[in-house]
Amino acid sequence: QPVFTGGRSWLSLQNSKKMYEIQQVSHKVTISSIERETKSLYYAALEAQERFSIAEKSLDLAVQNRKNGEIRFKMGTLSKAELQNLLSQEKSQEVTVIQAKNSADLSLQQLASYIQNDSIGNLIEIPLDLYKAYIDQLVQFSQQEILEKIDWATQLALSQSNEIALSKISEDLAKNSYLMNIGSFLPTVQVQYSQNWKSTNLTDTYDRSGQFSVVASVPILPAGSNAAKTAKSKQEMQKSALSTKITEDNIALSINQSY
Asked: For residue 243, what are the CA distances in angstroms to 168, 173, 240?
């Protein structure tokens, strides 16, 4: 019965637990990604609709300006060149309305496609009053307060980020793989025990004998292959640690830019 295999059995168990943790965190990442993308598409559709509404109002104004210009042209208070300029502005605004309408329709289609719902209907606008208090408060912050808020938000994000959690779990997996490869150079220890019964005479009397042994074996032939695997796993461990650091830096940079 093997009692020590270079720590590989224990590390394999730890890796199985880490893989389960990855599945849990990955599920959270997927949910967060869906929520984030849905909000982004919804806001984009709202903005596109607002731009279309503004374009229509601008067209109405351009039409009114052109009509007033025709009256002034007949009265002789507006030159033909100025009237042509008003006509050109109206035509240009008509094109803008068409482009804004196409953009609004496309944004709505993208949202419907993502949430797999073709009957979205009219989007509900988000009142500015919901965020006005936060905006007014942000405007009043001093430079020192802003830096403190950035530091607070950064620390909060680093402690609760699912992406960082995944990176750290992957880093632990890479470290365990490295230790498992190192364990291939350690001996495998086995404990063996055997017991025998032997008849010594004709009166059904038996003698019992037992043998206990401890055997340690070290692999020799695949040493070169094990060394290559160990070196590769060490590189993967270093890459995982670097990936975690890059993820942390990107989160901190994103928070700084958002402020």
From this structure: 9, 13, 5
Q: Which two tokens stand for residue 55?
A: 């374009």
pLDDT of amino acid 4? 43
| d(C-alpha 160, C-alpha 158), whole Å | 6
The Cα-based distances of 39 to 43, 65, 105, 113, 114 in angstroms read 6, 39, 17, 14, 11
- φ and ψ at 257, to 5 degrees? -70, -30
Q: Give the C-alpha separation, 236 to 43, whole Å.
A: 40
Determine contact, residues 216/240, Cβ cutoff 8 Å. no
Dist CA 232 CA 134 (whole Å): 51
Secondary structure element (H or E) that encloses residue 215, with its range? strand 206-217
CB atoms within 10 A of CB 167: 21
Per DSSP, the three-state class of 34 is helix
pLDDT for position 1: 43
Overall size of the chain counted in residues: 259
Can you tell me whether residue 207 is helix, strand or coil? Answer: strand
Residue of 251, 259, 235, 44 lying closest to 162 (CA atoms): 251
pTM for this predicted structure = 0.64
